[in-house]
Amino acid sequence: MLDPEILPEEWIEFEAGTLRIALHKTSKDSRGSESSCRHKIVFYAKDVAKERAKLLKRKVKMGSVKTWGKLSLCDFSDPEGNRIQLSNRK
Asked: Is the pLDDT of residue 25 over 80?
């Protein structure tokens, strides 16, 4: 279910069988510029920190876990530079 703090024009979700696909606006990077990478795939993880730890043990380079209230996220990239995220958002 969509977080009531996220405006509908900034986020839309589609049910695709057992998957949920979400499209949303990109955010600004740390310099205030639009992100140069406008896409990423996100995988659900009930416990983002636990799944991150498992991936670190497999030598995957991971970003830090970021938490806002009940939402936890962790970004990383595959070997070809495609952005990936773990999220506990259902």
From this structure: no
d(CA 90, CA 71): 10
> In which element (H, E) is residue 62 found?
strand 62-68
> What percent of the chain lies above the pLDDT cut of 90?
39
Q: Is the pLDDT of residue 16 over 90?
A: no
Can you list the domains of the chain with their CATH numbers? 8-26+36-87 (3.10.180.10)
Phi then psi for residue 15, to 5 deg, are -85, 130
Residue 64: helix, strand or coil by DSSP? strand
Cβ(55)–Cβ(62) below 8 Å: yes
| H-helix segments, 26-73 | 48-57
Cβ atoms of 45 and 88 within 8 Å: the answer is: yes
Q: How far apart are CA 71 and CA 26, in angstroms?
A: 17
